[in-house]
Amino acid sequence: MPSEWAEVETLMRDLGAVRVAAFAARASDAAYVAVEQAIADATQAVVETLDDPRNAKAISQARQAIDTARKLVGNLAVEIDRSQRARQRAAELRLKPRRRDGEAD
Q1: Which of 16, 21, 42, 88 lies deepest, with the highest CB count within 10 Å?
Q2: 105 in a domain, yes or no?
Q3: pTM of the prediction?
Q4: How far apart are CA 47 and CA 26, in angstroms?
């Protein structure tokens, strides 16, 4: 592969990794729409690099769009983790025995 295509290949791999991470995350409808839009924007930016793989501006825009999508997916993963911990903690609190005065231990 000529070196001029190496950056485009990297962008494609990065975009693919973001797509896989987005599939793994289960989001609310609003979050899903935002992530999908960011991925669509990043995809379009990468497609534009195919016309001229030496176009530094197009490469930079694609990289920024992928980073934006990656951050949205990362934020979603943090929210999912926080939500799972909260549900787990709530379940633990329901299982704790009550003291005679009605308060949990």
Answers
A1: 42
A2: no
A3: 0.76
A4: 27
